[in-house]
Design a protein that fits this description.
Helix content: 25-40%
Structural class: alpha+beta
Strand content: 25-35%
Order of helices and strands: HEEEEEHHHEEEEEHHE
Strand order of the largest sheet: 5-9-8-7-6
Mean pLDDT: 81
Length: 214
């Protein structure tokens, strides 16, 4: 179900915002299964949690992650926090908010890198540079990250291999993606049904690195 909604979102943004033709939207995959368009076309990444589906787009590798704040996330502390972060966490009143923020920051980085959870999260230690912006250096290359405020019950982070972070953030209802696909004969009946069953009522998409047409 989530896959169908993600496909609708990608079609909506690639065609409406980037002006791609349907024939240009053909996916390939890296060695670890991250989907990509062909060289020269936008990079993208998608995430889903609870009421939200989010996506990031840009002309450099991008990663995005959204997660609902939940005290259960404290169980991830041994698996993802560095020693320094554990000390900060132990003195933080809102521990689950802290863990959730660190989780989405790290997840957005490994997704931008294209390796997913095969990369140890304890090896990801972004540092804050102000204004909700962070950096993490990997193999001598700096990755820029940003925590984006959009729903107090969730945390959202986007990461880019380019130093230019979000040019625009747009909220769209899921039904707009479905209707757009119907109008463009891009949505099968199966995809319409499964997309409507996804709990996500709205979608956030974020474009980086270059202005878009819409």
């Amino acid at each position: 179900m989530r896959l169908a909604a993600a496909e609708l979102l990608l079609d909506y943004v690639f065609i409406r915002a980037y002006g791609l033709k349907r024939g240009e939207i053909s996916y390939r995959y890296n060695a670890l299964g991250k989907p990509l368009l062909h060289p020269g076309l936008p990079h993208f990444n998608v995430s889903h949690s609870g009421d939200w589906m989010v996506a990031a787009f840009g002309y450099a590798p991008v990663g995005i992650d959204v997660e609902r704040v939940d005290e259960k996330l404290n169980g991830l502390v041994p698996l993802m926090l560095t020693g320094r972060e554990r000390r900060e966490w132990s003195f933080t009143p809102g521990r689950e908010e802290y863990v959730c923020s660190r989780w989405v920051l790290k997840e957005s980085f490994v997704k931008a890198l294209g390796v997913g959870l095969q990369y140890p999260l304890t090896g990801v230690d972004p540092y804050q540079i102000g204004g909700g912006c962070w950096k993490h250096v990997h193999c001598g290359k700096a990755y820029d990250l940003k925590l984006i405020d959009f729903d107090s019950a969730y945390r959202l982070s986007v990461c880019s291999a380019s130093p230019k972070l979000p040019e625009r953030t747009k909220l769209i209802p899921l039904r707009d993606c479905i209707n757009f696909g119907i109008q463009n004969s891009a949505v099968s009946m199966r995809k319409r049904r499964t997309a409507r069953e996804v709990k996500a009522s709205s979608i956030v998409y974020i474009t980086l690195n270059r202005s878009t047409q819409d």
